[in-house]
Amino acid sequence: MHPPLIGITAKRDQQQSPASIILFEHYTRSILDAGGIPIILPTGIPANQAEAAALRVDGILISGGGDVDHAIYNGRPHARVYNVDPDRDALEMALVSAARQYQIPLLGICRGLQVINVALGGTLFSDIRDQFPTSIEHSTGKFDDIAHTVKINGNTRLSDIVQREKLEVNSLHHQGIDRLGQGLRASAVSSDGLTEGIESLDNRFLIAVQWHPETMHHDQAAQAVFQSLIEASLIYHNEHKYTRR
After folding, report:
1. What is the dihedral of CA 135, 139, 143, 149, to 10 degrees?
2. Cβ–Cβ under 8 Å, residues 122 and 179
3. What are the tens digits of pLDDT across the range 110-157?
4. Smallest Cα–Cα separation from 212: which of 147, 129, 117?
5. Domain 5-240: CATH architecture, name and number where available
6. Hey, where are the domains in the chain?
7. Over the stretch 210-219, which tens digit does the pLDDT of each residue have?
8. CA nearest neighbour of 180 among 197, 156, 165
9. Residue 63: its pLDDT value, please?
10. Please, what is the Cα angle at 108 between 185 and 230, to 5 degrees?
11. Distance from C-alpha of 161 to C-alpha of 228, rounded to nearest angstrom
12. Residues involved in catalysis
């Protein structure tokens, strides 16, 4: 069996000398543990080459990181917006477009969920604490701590994957979905009503979650998310192995 190649986006840190491309090992380890081969897609790939990059992998994972530029979705400026990188925004938006067009399996995590939503015409809260009434702390800054519970909506791809009605999740985001993008539905919601999971109504595998399953190594439902990406990517590979561009 051919292990599928999974392209994972990575952030750029220009404050280091020399500038660095950074990706937490949790992402690559989760892909390896699920049976895939991780390939880093660094910020710096021009957006007009995103399609070429997407067509050379079997699946895509848009990882966590800094905030999406609020100007893209006509959001409100906020002092807590951080680490905006226009090059990363452009690359990942283009990768979403390619995944949609060619039915390439796509998983978004944290920032990845927000990128997918914005790429499909949705909007975000620039800062949950100031723009969304809640008693939940969504930005704990701790990958290892359970922050709150999310309800998994029935009859969704995510519910089929995790096989649970509720999940206890970590939470490290200060932004979140306001209006859903076109062709998306909510697959998970926190108790305060914030959308925590999304998936495409059209693509066979395009899902995203707001929490960080890559750090929840002992949670079966978290690992099932990555296993489902690998399974979908194997199907994609077998369908396209003779037509690879």
Report:
1. 30
2. yes
3. 999 999 999 999 999 999 888 888 878 888 888 888 878 999 999 999
4. 147
5. 3-Layer(aba) Sandwich (3.40)
6. 5-240
7. 999 999 988 9
8. 197
9. 98
10. 105
11. 7
12. 110, 212, 214
